[in-house]
Every structure is written in C-alpha cells, then in structure tokens.
Design goal:
The complex is a heterodimer of chains A (108) and B (273). Chain A is mainly β and 108 residues long. Chain A has one domain: Sandwich (Immunoglobulin-like). In chain A, strands 2-8-7-4-5 form a five-stranded mixed beta sheet, with no helix packed on it. Chain B is mainly alpha-helical. Classes of the chains: A mainly beta (108), B mainly alpha (273).
C-alpha cells in the first residue's frame, strides 16, 4: 500500500509564467507533546524539512516544526522558464526521505 | 451618565452587535427542502456548520486529506487477497463505474441474511464470501479507506434509503434510539441535533447530525472516521455505555439517520471538526 504524496501543478505553462504548486503528504506528524493512555509521552516523529528543486536547481524549501498538523499541506509558486521535472523531498526526523516528481512542459 | 462610562457603553454595544453576527450565519446556510412528513423543514449538511476555511479544505480535491485514504484504497481495490486469488477489481472492474450510487443508498436490505447491511459489512462480506480473504477489522485503516473510496464514487448523488417493508422495524428501532435519553448526562441525539442545531454547545456549533459526509476526515483526529465510530463517540461524550460499532442498534440508527438526511448530497470524503 504505497502512500504517495499528492501533487498538483499545471501540465504546461508559458515561458515566464508563475504557476502554483500544491503538495499534500500523508504523515502522522507526531508532535512529541502528547501522552498515551498509560501516561507515557508519544515520541516526536515529524517531517522536519521539505525541499523542491526543478531541473536540479532549488526552487523552494522549508523547515517544519512540531506545531504543524498531520498530513502537511504545502503550497508555493514557481516561475517556469523551461520545461523539466520538479523533484520533491520530505525528510522525516529519522532520516527517511519521501520523494516524488512531476514534469511540466512549455506551452508552444 | 458620567462621561467616563460612555466608553464602556460603546464597548458593550459593539460586543452585542458583533456577537449577533456569529449565529446570524444561520440566514446564509443552504439546505434542501425536506420531503413532506419529514421531521425537519429544511435539511442542512454538516458542511453548512463549518468555517469557510474547513469548507475550503473539503472543496479542493488536492487539499482534502480524505483523498489520501482514497488513494490508498484505490491500490487496495486492485490488490489480490484471499485463497480465491481475486481482488475487488476482479468482479467489480472499475470502481468509478461499478460502485456509482452504491454508497448513496446504504444500508441496504439483504434478503439472504434477513437484515440490513451497511457498506463496511458489505465490503467484509465480499471479502469473506467471494475472495475468501480475512475480513478487515472495524476502525482498521484498510476498512475505513475502502469504505471512503466506495462511498466517494457516489459523491454528489442524493442520499436515499428504503424504510418500508422489511426495513420498517429497523427504521422504527433507529428512531426510538434517536429519541431515547442515555447516559449520565441524560441526553438523546434529538436533544442536541434536533432541538439545538445551529446553537453552540460550549465551543461546538451543533449541526443536524447528518451522515451524508461519512466517512469523514475529522480535524480533531487527523484521520478518516467511519460513522459508527463517531456515534460511538457521541454516546461516550454523554457518558453512556456506547453500543458496539456494527451492532444491530447502530445499524438501525444508521438506517434512521440516512432517512433524516434524505436528499442530501453524499460528500465523502467530507472534512469536519
């Protein structure tokens, strides 16, 4: 059962156009503040970094903190100058990285 | 009146006027006219009682976290499980076609079992009888995901429910439960959801308690919640001993709740508090 990140961006854009990129990833984002039924603290486990690059160049990155709820939704804009591939990476506290990619073409 | 009290009077007046705006939203709520003989005049979906930010979450298919469950279930739909070597897709093909309308008319009367069967039960019946696979536990992620996925295929279609014939005693039982007071707090479903919808219970804005959006992504739990888990929670909240999920009582209540929301569009996966 793959938990794929959900990504939405236009299939094509004009050169120089600013597009909106929307991402949603499935993750528990355990803050480390909650206690379980026995009173033990549920350990922190969050995605602490999101990074996006386009054709190898960084476009957008952010550090996430424990206050962000589960299934984080991140949205940003990007200016398209050439066609290529967006690569997304979500980094978990334990070092695991969830990745995804989406292509975009230039309008003729 | 001393001039030093003017400021206080102005502040209180302003507070009273702006406070009226909160429940004044009532005038803007969009409902559907109830059929004749129904308990309500206008039926409102839970959607109408949420803030515009919550509604925006539900309205955008990418932002709606319920779709994470639907994506997982779409994979499960095609997954072969059980000794018969079948997946859901083996018999049902493409869910978009075969499951359209199914979730809008649940629970359905089953002649063989001589009882109503809801969507979770139907999924498990298919698994155990046709796939010879292990049925999924109630509240398990797989069962909730699959229920959400199947009901999502009916999104936008009006809720319908059969209440006559063999379903009639179940409808009556559900209705009796709806109006019975339970628990230490001695409240019935109707106490809040019929008498006081649109008003606040402490910080919670009470809805009509409709089931058209279930399974729903609850912001409180940060996951998709099936209907019986929610009504079990309601009974827990009034400090009653809840009936068990998938019990006869909750099945009867589900039949009755579907009738109370008849005509509302299926909103699965909705986003609620």
């Amino acid at each position: 059962m793959a938990d794929r990140p959900r990504i939405k961006l236009p299939k094509e854009a004009s050169k120089g156009e600013i597009i909106q990129v929307k991402t949603l990833v499935s993750h528990v984002m355990e803050s480390g503040q909650r206690k379980d039924a026995q009173g033990k603290t549920v350990p922190r486990k969050i995605i602490n970094r999101f990074a996006c690059e386009f054709n190898g160049k960084p476009v957008f990155a952010c550090a996430l903190e424990p206050a962000i709820s589960a299934n984080p939704y991140i949205q940003f804009n990007a200016r398209i100058e050439e066609e290529g591939t967006f690569k997304f990476a979500w980094t978990d506290d334990d070092g695991a990285v969830i990745t995804a990619e989406e292509k975009i073409a230039l309008k003729a | 009146m001393q001039s030093r009290y003017i400021g206080l009077v102005v502040a209180v007046t302003a507070a009273v006027l702006s406070g009226a705006g909160a429940s004044g939203q009532e005038a803007e709520r969009k409902g559907i006219p109830a059929p004749p003989g129904h308990v309500f005049k206008t039926i409102f979906s839970g959607y109408e009682f949420r803030t515009k930010e919550t509604r925006a979450l539900q309205d955008d298919d990418l932002e709606n976290p319920g779709f994470l469950a639907i994506e997982r279930a779409a994979d499960l739909w095609a997954k072969v499980e059980g000794s018969e070597g079948k997946s859901c897709a083996s018999c049902h093909g493409e869910a978009e076609k075969s499951m359209k309308g199914v979730g809008a008319a649940m629970p359905k009367w089953d002649d063989k079992l001589d009882r109503p069967v809801n969507l979770e039960q139907r999924i498990n019946l298919c698994r155990s009888e046709h796939m010879k696979a292990e049925p999924w536990a109630f509240k398990s992620q797989q069962l909730t995901d699959m229920t959400t996925f199947v009901r999502n295929q009916s999104r936008g279609m009006p809720v319908t429910i059969r209440t006559d014939g063999p379903m009639s005693p179940w409808f009556d039982k559900g209705k009796a439960i709806y109006y019975t007071r339970y628990g230490q707090l001695d409240l019935a479903c109707a106490s809040c959801h019929e008498k006081k919808f649109g008003k606040f219970m402490r910080a919670d804005l009470l809805s009509q308690g409709q089931s058209n959006g279930f399974p729903t992504y609850r912001l409180r739990d940060q996951r998709v919640i099936p209907l019986h888990e929610r009504i079990e929670g309601c009974m827990f909240d009034i400090r009653a001993q809840p009936f068990k999920p998938l019990s006869d009582e909750f099945l009867a209540l589900e039949v009755y709740l579907a009738w109370r929301g008849i005509g509302l569009p299926v909103e699965t996966p909705s986003v609620r508090n």
